[in-house]
Specification:
CATH architecture of the largest domain: 3-Layer(aba) Sandwich
Radius of gyration: 24 Å
CATH superfamily of the largest domain: Aldehyde Dehydrogenase, Chain A, domain 1
Shape: globular
Helix content: 25-40%
CATH topology of the largest domain: Aldehyde Dehydrogenase, Chain A, domain 1
Number of domains: 2
Bound molecules: NADPH dihydro-nicotinamide-adenine-dinucleotide phosphate
CATH class of the largest domain: Alpha Beta
Distance between the termini: 90 Å
Length: 489
């Protein structure tokens, strides 16, 4: 035997293919001990503070300002001053330049933002790096392009900015939701006061540094942090428009509060989307889409495909493939580049997921969770599939906002439509079939603002996004996304 052959015969036979840890370095991010409020281009000290943590380790990260009524009023006054004395009047080409600058700076600093987003929110770095950051920058690029073309976007309608926009965003896509809100508002000539969610303020606060770097005039972007009370103050304040993304419950409360005030409102609320699998679909591809549809961002996605409707003839096969795929998902450290499913955003959200999962078991659904070791510290929930689900079960009706999928079956396209539309929500849906005509037939009948065909969770700044029924009203993205920020003659 040659030396080479001898050596290779002695080489250990690998027993498995484990992933080695691949943590992203944290040192690119500098977190202050304490943050103020970003108002009129300056940091304003607040009277009260709370601690923001990392949900994957419960490690305290920083002290965050809790803005009260006076501080919110100061921010709104600064935005008003900026709107009336300059921002709306500068040439649209100049406005576009600022937005292009912000987009470029976000690209340049994207690693820093991605690490901070995963640290504060618990989402896998792979997602914040490859989805949230590129899309946030793309939104600013896209709306920068519209800033000097509003007359063409709305011909013969003489568009004018609305004035000051109050914007309230949730914790599932902190920087991306900020981009969805701020980019169209600024492109249309408005100024903004934005409130990030209580649990995920850090990337919005880092964004203030981008605003400074881009030399945006003071008062055009103001960031006020705090919990729901700060949001409620912003709704009550002297703004001209409220743009809200969050729960249907809070959305309804805001709608009641604003009724009769003349303030404009757009609401992007919850969802309970159906991902519909026909027996002629490319099943392996569809399984990838279903997994992406519900386990992406731990299921903290308003348009998550949280109900899977499978045609009865492929039910056994689809569920077997799905369970096999679930076993390969890696749950753990959000900063590890191999992680597929990160931490649940907060203790409160974890409790809500647990409550609904317990309700699903009590009502008679069959639960499956792949074997996985969850970290001891932090907030975690294993990817979960429920089979044997009836339409009346809470897990088939309520938004869980976690990595939990409910599987139901159907026989005919008509039944699929009936079941898919049987929800108070109407945000999104997915159709998996090889027949183009069936896709169009389904899309005409599904009551959902966004319908994906043979894919899921695809976003593009040029494409409008929004819902029907209890999923809200108004559209974000695309030319449609400018309209709520404009008045017409
Ligand atoms: P909320 O609707 O409470 O939060 C969304 C934003 O609104 C946050 O910035 C929040 O502040 C703020 N807010 C809370 N109360 C008020 C108020 N009275 N007036 C104005 N603003 C307010 O969602 P939660 O975080 O409580 O999540 C609860 C459930 O909502 C989730 O389990 C999920 O089902 C759903 N949800 C849906 C989202 C979507 O995109 N469709 C996004 C987030 C949640 P703060 O965070 O500081 O309380």
């Amino acid at each position: 035997m040659t030396d080479v052959a001898k050596r290779s015969s002695r080489a250990p036979v690998p027993s498995g293919w484990e992933y080695a840890p691949a943590p992203e370095a944290r040192d690119i991010v500098r977190i202050e001990e304490r943050y103020g409020l970003y108002v009129d281009g300056q940091w304003l000290e607040a009277k009260e503070h709370y601690t923001t943590i990392s949900p994957s380790s419960e490690e305290p990260l920083a002290e965050i300002a809790q803005a009260g009524p006076e501080e919110v009023a100061t921010a709104v006054a600064a935005a008003r001053e900026a709107a009336e004395n300059g921002w709306a009047e500068i040439s649209p080409t100049e406005r576009a330049k600022y937005l292009f600058r912000i987009a470029r700076i976000l690209q340049e600093r994207s690693r820093e933002f991605a690490v901070l987003e995963s640290l504060n929110g618990g989402k896998p770095i792979r997602e914040s790096r490859d989805v949230d950051l590129p899309l946030a920058a793309a939104h600013f690029f896209y709306y920068a392009g519209w800033a000097d073309k509003l007359e063409y976007a709305f011909p013969n309608r003489r568009p004018r900015p609305v004035g000051v926009a109050g914007q309230i965003i949730p914790w599932n896509f902190p920087l991306l939701m900020l981009a969805w809100k701020i980019a169209p508002a600024l492109a249309a000539g408005n100024t903004v006061v934005l409130k990030p969610a209580e649990t995920t303020p850090l990337t919005a606060l880092l964004f203030c540094d981008v605003v400074r770097q881009a030399e945006l005039p003071p008062g055009v972007v103001n960031i006020v942090t705090g919990d729901g009370r700060t949001g409620a103050e912003l709704v009550r304040s002297e703004v001209d428009k409220i743009a809200f993304t969050g729960s249907t419950e809070v959305g309804k409360a805001i709608q009641r509060e604003l009724a009769g005030t003349g303030k404009r409102l757009t609401l992007e609320l919850g969802g309970k989307a159906a991902n519909i699998l026909f027996d002629d679909c490319a099943l392996d591809q569809a399984i990838e889409g279903i997994v992406n549809g519900i386990y992406f961002n731990q299921g903290h996605v308003c348009c998550a495909g949280s109900r899977l409707l499978v045609q009865e003839s492929i039910y056994e096969q689809a569920v077997a493939k799905l369970k096999r795929r679930l076993k390969t998902l890696r749950v753990g450290d959000p900063l590890d580049k191999n992680t597929d499913v990160g931490a649940i955003n907060s203790k409160q959200q974890l409790e809500k997921i647990r409550e609904l999962v317990e309700a699903g078991e009590a009502e008679g659904a069959e639960i499956y969770q792949p074997p996985c070791r969850l970290p001891e510290k932090g907030y975690w929930f294993a990817p979960t599939v429920f089979t044997n689900v009836a339409q009346s079960y809470r897990i088939a009706q309520e938004e869980i906002f976690g990595p939990v999928l409910s599987v139901l079956t159907f026989r005919t396209p008509e039944e699929a439509i009936e079941k898919a539309n049987n929800t108070p929500y109407g945000l999104s849906a997915g159709v998996w079939t090889e027949k183009g005509s069936r896709i169009l037939w389904m899309a005409q009948r599904l009551r959902a603002g966004v319908i994906w065909a043979n894919t899921y969770n695809r976003f593009d700044p040029s494409s409008p996004f929004g819902g029907y029924k209890e999923s809200g009203f108004g559209r974000e993205g695309g030319r449609h996304g400018l309209e709520p920020y404009l008045e017409f003659e």
